[in-house]
Structure formats: structure tokens, C-alpha cells
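To fix ideas, we close by showing one paired sequence and structure record:
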Amino acid sequence: MLRIHDVIMFSNFLKNPDRRFVLSLEYSILFFAIFYFVVLFFSEHEILGFESPIVEVPQQLKQINETILYVMLSLLSFELLLKYMKIGDWKVFLKKYWFDMAMMILIPVFSGIKIIKALKIAKKVKVAKYGFKIADKTQKKIRKSKAPHSKT
């Protein structure tokens, strides 16, 4: 059961976290960011203009990379929360930690490369769908014109 004392201790931790904890959090985020972008660089070789991959990335590593993105964003959000709780003023916070905020915004944008790739596939599917619809309507009109007309 959660006691008031525990809530107060957690609140105090948020306002004044241990410097070693924050430093280890920052290094963890840095490690995850480097790992994520290295795997992304080698797995999205077509978007970068390479015909073949420089290094073949296993499918399992690509799946792990998806999870790492969410872990990294969660850790970055928590770190920014700790920094904001310590400062308390959002103007000073933005002035001091603008790079962290930019990183928080740009990481999903860079992972949007995959979204662009998916949109290209969706466009192709959409074009194919319209092609099938046109072919189907054309077939129906041909059948209709070949059918004998009944006299009334």
C-alpha cells in the first residue's frame, strides 16, 4: 500500500534527483540513440540512395530497434520531467534544455522515414485498387454490351 511518506519521498526525488542517477540516465539515452540510428542507417539503405546494404541487418535487430525507440523516448521524457521539476520555470527550462527538447521532437521525425516508406507502399496499393476498379467496370460494360437486348 502506498503511504504518504513514500509519495513525499518520490516528490522530493523528482525535485532534487541524485546527480549520478541523472548522469546514468543521460548516458543510457545516448547509448540507445547511437544504437537506434546506426541500425536505422544500415537498414534503410535504399532511402539513403545505396543500391545494396553496406552491412546486412537481421530482421530481429530491426524489431528490437522499434522497441528501443520507445524506450529511448520514455527515458528522454522522464529525464526532461526531472529537469523541469528541478527548475520549475518553463522559460528557463526551454532556454537551458532546448537541445533535449529538439531531440525529443526530431527522433520521431527521423523514424518517420519508415512512415514515408509505408506511404509509398500505400500509394501503390491505392493505385492498384483503382486499377482493379476500372478493370471491373470495364468488364461489366463489355458484358452488358454483349448481352442480347430484349425487345418490349
User: Anything to note?
Assistant: The radius of gyration is 27 Å. The chain has two domains: 4-111, 114-152. The chain has a mean pLDDT of 76. The helical segments are 4-15, 19-43, 59-87, 90-96, 98-111, 113-146.
